Amino acid sequence: MKQFPIKKKLSLTPLIGIQAQVKNHTIRALYDPGANISMINDEFVKKLKQNIIPIKTYACMCRTMGGVRLLTGVIKVTLKIMNIQSDIWLFVIKDDSFDCDVLLGLDCIQIFRLNMDYKLNITQIEKEDDDININYNIDKSTFKINNEPFRVNWKEGIPVDKFVAETEHLPKEQKDKIEKLITDNESVFARN
Fold first, then answer.
1. With 80 as the cut, is the pLDDT of residue 134 above it?
2. Higher-confidence residue: 185 or 181?
3. Which residue among 36, 96, 103, 139 is the one 20 to 30 A from 65 at the CA level?
């Protein structure tokens, strides 16, 4: 396996925020591709003067880097990021340490076609003709997402045929081990 020399010591990257619009508010939204869902701070919801649809299921807790936090409900907002404006559902989080207005998880990153390069620049990708139509519908009476029960760790929406494990550079034995690991534990991988 080819190794590359490390020229400088790695350090933690800063939190990456991008400018967005919610109603008449310009906000700094935290870009977090490690989050499956997008969230909005309950204090910011109060500024929007918008009603929260309460979560009435057992699954109203969310694991964050700061620990397990309470999700109090959802709201639908019109969010504009760069050139795209969309009505989206955001999970409302009650947490004093949640110090951003909105956290953009994989659901919004995909809807707004956001891409981050190795220099941590965020750009918006143009829609391609073969793009899948991304639409998350929340039934307010049953609180199901796309007719599935609510789970904080719901799917990221990556079609199986577009999920590729880049293993061409590995020996066959290692490729086989990785494929077996993915197959045996498919429920924890984004492609499923």
1. no
2. 181
3. 139
Count CB atoms within 10 A of the CB of residue 81: 24
Residues whose CB falls within 8 Å of the CB of residue 175, separated by 6 or more in sequence, listed in order: 167
Query: Tokens for 191?
Result: 């492609």
Q: For residues 15 and 30, is the Cβ–Cβ distance under 8 A? A: yes
Within the chain, where are the H helices? 42-48, 106-111, 172-184
Q: Is the pLDDT of residue 14 over 60?
A: yes
Would you say 81 and 114 are in contact if contact means Cβ atoms under 8 Å apart?
yes
> Is 132 part of any domain?
yes
The answer to whether residue 37 is domain-embedded is yes
Could you tell me the sign of the dihedral formed by the alpha carbons of 92, 94, 100, 105, in that order?
A: negative
Q: Look at the chain and report how many structural domains it folds into.
A: 2
pTM here is: 0.61
Tell me how long the chain is: 192
Helix (H, G, I), strand (E, B) or coil at 107: helix
Residue 85 in tokens: 């404006």
Cβ 73 vs Cβ 138: under 8 Å = no
Q: Which domain covers residue 98, as residue numbers?
A: 17-149
Q: Which two tokens stand for residue 28?
A: 């700094």
